Amino acid sequence: MSIDFYWRLPTHGCHASIRRGSYDRGDWSPLQPGNVAPGLTAQGEDDGYRYIDHLAEIAKAAELSGFIGGLIPSFPNTDDPWVISPLLARETKTFRFMIAFQPGFLDPVHAARISASLQRATGGRTVFNVITGGGGPSQLWWGDDFAHDDRYGRTTEFLDIFRGVWAGKPFDYDGRFYQVEGEQLSDLLSREEVPEIWFSGSSEAALQSAAKHADYYLSWLEPYDQLTDKFARVKERTAQLGGEQKCAIRVDLVARPTEEEAWRDIRIGFENVSDATRAQWRGQPTDSVGAARQSALKPTEAKRWDDLIVGKNLWGGFNLLRGGPALGIVGSYEQCAEQLDELIQRGADAFILAGTPHLEEAWRIGEEVLPLLGRTAATTQNLLEAAE
Amino acid sequence: MTLRFYWRLDPAAEPARGEASARPATGFVPRDVRTASLNRYDYYVQVARAAATTAFDGLFVAYRPESDDSQIVAAAIARTAPRLLLVPEFPATVGSAVYAAKEAVSFQRATHNRLGWALTGDGGEEDAARTAEFLHVARGVHGTRPFDHDGEYFSVKGGGFQAPLANVPFPPVYLSGDDEEALERSARLADVHLLPHAPLDALRGRAETLDRLALAAGRTVELGVIATITARETAEEVAAGQGIAGSYDAVANRLADLHAIGVGHVVLSATPSLEEAYRIGQFVLPRVRARIADLRAAA
Ligand SMILES: Cc1cc2nc3c(=O)[nH]c(=O)nc-3n(C[C@H](O)[C@H](O)[C@H](O)COP(=O)(O)O)c2cc1C
């Protein structure tokens, strides 16, 4: 069995250390000495490097250290994955660009064309994380006023058309949100493979749409039993449609030579978050079921870093240290590998991993953790049990 | 005013060049070691680098639904084609204006502000209305925060980019068309209006109309000409050439004349695209620049 491991390109700048919240890679913080991409020359001038140059290094580190590609997130104040991917297409070799995008923002026929073009530019290295948006002010910011379940309805129709025009003959569609007549990709474009579709969303509406279109159902890490239940529900739905659902997990790791060193970084990181910052972290109103499942972990109310230990090697405060979901894995290389092995036992078919700083941690996890997979004590134990 | 030169890459032209799927599968005697990773984009890059190394100022990429997408091509070549302004042509029907503006801003950030937008369309009423609203919203979220809009095609609430996305300029917008409606639209919306090449008198008339309309709209709009070009060392080699045609000297004089009537942008194309970019860049552009300098010195 082989498992696809993706890394992540941070599109909102990066921190030089998980211990500190300052975005000193990229230009999301003021340009000052020690900043990278852009940085300052010895004369104190902008050195001309741009954040894309740093993203290129992360992508290359990921492909060299054994990751199959990387997720490229999309939020109001990030750089855009549809631009980053073609920009980096020619200087990477095997790295797959997993583009996070909300179907509502592009015309579906146009989306199919640009996807096929990107497939041609990359030799088939395009992958999608289809997201459907978290509602609230940020949805209106994008210019989208659809309600939660309508957004998923639109996502389903979008993907119907996206695949439909790829099939090599004229395609008609009369949906609630889209109508097309006689559209198809040219022979040149339809020769390319339809990109693999990863799908995020935890609500009923999301699962319904996923069952029809997702190659991988993608979830943030959640407490393991809860996650196992969710995967079981998705797999059951897809089975009803006659398919077999693969599942994937997106999770951050703090992996260090020893468990003690890993928790020390978490403790220092936690202590560097001011109360004021913590209060701000409550986030915007959202209709996201997935986000509610994360915030149920309540990291904003913790007094001490270890209030947030929610299980062996599991810490629920990652969203205090950087934007994103709350739950992540903390431990020695061996322990991190054990956790991943356990998740594989529980039905994960693929992963998107990340760690801060993304460049150095791609190397570290690629070199120190990935090679331990399938060989840790947890796996051995499970294999023994299975054999009994 | 300077005269800016753009080469125009057409992703659908010369379809076999560099195209991996067009390689002979049988009956090709030389040992063929080209892998699939050597492909059409390597050719696009060559054309772009040809334009960059021969002192063009920019590269337009034509919108061809049957071939590679102009915006994907522009981004894929950006990091290997230095200096050039990259101007994909595309219609306002590609998707949300907010999303397009956000992509534009990322492109600007990554390329030291080397993006332009050439909005195309069928020129019909619906297309014109959509294009106008598309530009209004895209520029709105780029320049205003919070930005609200409730229109026919797009609606936004509390929109607008923050730093650092808001720190880069909006790409220059090129619109085209030959009739009065197109000129009127450009007067309101374009940074540059591109006219098809025509006799000097006709162009002069259009230029005056554009100036008048732009003045009425309280804006300035620069003028450009888009043309195919056929240039050879001697006039007799240009049998029935297309577009702006003639010897290197004659073509250069013609381009300098355009400049003299107020044209600031020239978008040129010829086939084969790579070889002709070198030819025009090496033999015609230096003559135009010298001629403009001479005229200026004389004046
Ligand atoms: C792994 C994962 C990655 C996501 N990435 C993004 C992203 O890049 N941009 C974004 O706006 N939302 C992202 N989302 C959130 C989704 O857009 C959506 O808000 C969420 O899945 C809510 O849907 P639900 O109500 O069905 O849970 C992501 C969600 C998951 C699970």
Give a structural overview.
- Chain A: This is LLM class flavin-dependent oxidoreductase.
- The complex is a heterodimer of chains A (about 400) and B (about 300).
- Chain A has about 400 residues and is of the alpha/beta class.
- Chain A contains 15 helices and 13 strands.
- Chain A has a single domain (about 5-250, about 330-360, about 365-385), classed as TIM Barrel, CATH 3.20.20.
- In chain A, α1 (about 50-65) packs parallel to α14 (about 360-370) and α13 runs parallel beside α15 (about 375-385).
- Chain A is globular.
- The two termini of chain A are about 20 Å apart.
- Chain B is α/β, with parallel strands linked by helices and about 300 residues long.
- Chain B has a domain at about 5-90 and about 170-220.
- Chain B is built from 8 helices and 11 strands.
- Chain B has helices at about 40-55, 70-80, 95-110, 125-145, 180-190, 200-215, 250-260, 275-299, and strands spanning about 5-10, 60, 85-90, 115-120, 145-150, 155-160, 175, 190-195, 220-230, 245, 265-270.
- In chain B, α3 crosses α4 (about 125-145).
- Chain B is globular.
- The two termini of chain B are about 15 Å apart.
- Bound molecules: flavin mononucleotide.
- Flavin mononucleotide binds near residues 73 and 132 of chain A.
The CATH superfamily of chain A is identified as: Luciferase-like domain
**Chain oligomer state:** heterodimer
Helical amount among residues of chain A, as a percent range?
40-55%
Helix proportion range of chain B: 40-55%
Q: Helix and strand string of chain B, N-terminal first?
A: EHEHEHEHEEEHEHEEHEH
Distance between the termini of chain A: 21 Å
Give the distinct bound molecules.
Answer: flavin mononucleotide
Give the overall form of chain B. globular
Biggest sheet of chain B, strands in spatial order?
1-2-3-4-7-8-9-11
What's the number of domains of chain A? Answer: 1
Report the biggest beta sheet of chain A as strand number plus sense, adding barrel if it closes.
8 strands, parallel, barrel
Span between N and C termini of chain B? 14 Å
Rg from alpha-carbon coordinates of chain A: 21 Å
- Number of E-type strands of chain A: 13
Largest sheet of chain B: 8 strands, parallel, barrel
Strand content of chain A: 15-25%
Mean pLDDT of chain A: 92
How many helices of chain B? The count is: 8
The general outline of chain A is globular
